[in-house]
């Protein structure tokens, strides 16, 4: 995916630097050439020798390294890459970037470069939320610097919150999206996929037969057109595609939270088969047979309708919202009604009645319902449906 791409990787001084070897391995595995730059702080966490060995390239560590300067000036170094990546980007490095300070090799390269820059911030949650960092974030975003992460979670310092560096796979996905050439380059598309699982007790759940195959194929097709894809998936039976940001969830409510966290997006496609109901009286402990034949009485509560919520959100609504409709009869009529009820732009409707073999199968026959009416596509492989749909999405975003 990254064959022939040259990445200048600036490694800042944070504990997240220990994830950088995995990042380098993954980038090289995809065919990219990595030129590493280690700040003085970064060298406290990873050694120049190990980074050079993994990158297969000498590490640049000091602005006044005269040998390097004679071979290749820092200006040239900063411009010889297709992309500059800063991982981890510390609060200090971000402040220097925002302020235009150039007092070491890393900050000088960042000031001298005219190459696109992607940063993967990592810091303590209070530093991330500090007014100064917020100002710097806004400045960097306005300067066209792209961000991946940080994620929320437990931190090395024992606190919990936003500030963990994005996982190497997510950073690779963001890099691939920035370097991809295609009509959706620079666009962010959200895709939900798979079934949801709604617990009955800690070991049992209610689910459905969705394999996640169509949503997965669609995410891959959107990625192939250059989009940055956030893929929110329930427990599917097919693996998620590479080169997309994967957010795994189990329940409908988790899926809603993940979707809201992944917005804003240029387009959102809801291919997941979300459970309509969850068990309202799910047990905290495994339910036991009492030996007298008593049966559990499950009560249900309605799950949030993620598609309807996103379709009907005012500010921040994606420019294009696409829903799916799996129907077993009167497909077009039901799908047209569904489009109106949910408020989405398109409905991709398919007939999943038992004889069709579509649910869990490799083929699909869909009808696209939009404001102009219905467009029936012939039966074809799910990958082909995905490619056509991705192209139609690119067209609707004015990117086709
Ligand atoms: O109402 P129905 O489940 O048939 O609608 C299907 C469409 O709505 C799909 O796009 C599905 O992903 C989405 N949906 C949702 N949240 C729900 C139920 C359905 O996003 N709770």
How would you describe what is shown here?
This protein has 2 domains: 1-179, Flavin prenyltransferase-like (Rossmann fold), CATH 3.40.50; 183-400, CoaB-like (Rossmann fold), CATH 3.40.50.10300. 33% of the residues lie in helices and 23% in strands. It has helices at 20-29, 48-55, 66-71, 74-79, 91-99, 105-112, 125-129, 131-142, 168-179, 213-224, 252-262, 306-312, 331-342, 382-396; strands at 6-11, 33-38, 83-89, 117-121, 146-147, 151-154, 160-164, 188-193, 198-199, 205-206, 228-233, 245-248, 267-270, 277-279, 300-302, 320-327, 346-351, 363-364, 366-370, 373-376, 380-381. The strands form 6 sheets. An 8-stranded mixed β-sheet has the order 12-11-8-13-16-17-19-20, with helices on both faces. Strands 2-1-3-4-5 form a 5-stranded parallel β-sheet, with helices on both faces. Strands 6-7 form a two-stranded antiparallel sheet. 44% of the residues are buried. The mean pLDDT is 91. Cytidine-5'-monophosphate binds next to helix 12 and strand 16. Residues 192, 252, 270, 272, 274, 276, 303-307, 323-325, 338 line the site of cytidine-5'-monophosphate.
């Amino acid at each position: 995916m990254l064959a022939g791409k040259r990445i200048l990787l600036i490694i800042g001084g944070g504990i997240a630097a220990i994830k950088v070897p995995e990042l380098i391995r993954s980038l090289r595995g995809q065919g990219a050439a990595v030129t590493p730059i280690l700040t003085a702080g970064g060298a406290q966490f990873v050694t120049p020798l190990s980074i050079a060995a993994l990158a297969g390239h000498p590490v640049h560590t000091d602005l006044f390294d005269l040998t390097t300067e004679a071979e290749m000036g820092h200006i040239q170094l900063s411009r010889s890459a297709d992309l500059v990546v800063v991982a981890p980007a510390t609060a200090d490095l971000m402040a220097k970037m925002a302020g235009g300070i150039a007092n070491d090799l890393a900050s000088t390269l960042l000031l001298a470069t005219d190459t696109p820059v992607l940063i993967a911030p990592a810091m303590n949650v209070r530093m991330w939320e500090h007014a100064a960092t917020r100002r710097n974030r806004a400045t960097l975003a306005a300067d066209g610097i792209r961000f991946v992460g940080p994620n929320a979670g437990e931190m090395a310092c024992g606190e919990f919150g936003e500030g963990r560096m994005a996982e190497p796979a997510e950073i690779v996905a963001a890099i691939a999206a920035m370097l991809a050439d295609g009509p959706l380059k620079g666009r962010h598309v959200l895709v939900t996929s798979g079934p949801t699982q709604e617990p009955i007790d800690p070991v049992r759940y209610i689910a459905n037969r969705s394999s996640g195959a169509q949503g997965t194929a669609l995410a891959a097709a959107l990625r192939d057109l250059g989009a940055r894809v956030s893929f929110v998936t329930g427990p599917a039976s097919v693996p998620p595609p590479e080169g997309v940001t994967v957010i795994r969830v189990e329940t409908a409510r988790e899926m809603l939270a993940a979707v809201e966290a992944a917005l804003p997006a240029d387009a959102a496609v809801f291919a997941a088969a979300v459970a309509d109901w969850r068990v309202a009286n799910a047990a905290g402990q495994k339910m036991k047979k009492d030996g007298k034949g008593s049966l559990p009485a499950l009560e249900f509560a309605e799950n949030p309708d993620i598609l309807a919520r996103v379709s009907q959100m005012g500010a921040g609504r994606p420019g294009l919202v696409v829903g799916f409709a799996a129907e077993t009869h009167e497909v077009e009529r039901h799908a047209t009604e569904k489009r109106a009820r949910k408020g989405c732009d398109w409905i991709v409707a398919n007939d999943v009645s038992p004889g069709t073999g579509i649910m869990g199968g490799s083929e699909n026959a869909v009808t696209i319902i939009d404001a102009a009416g219905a467009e029936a596509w012939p039966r074809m492989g799910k990958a082909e449906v995905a490619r056509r749909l991705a192209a139609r999405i690119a067209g609707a975003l004015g990117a086709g």
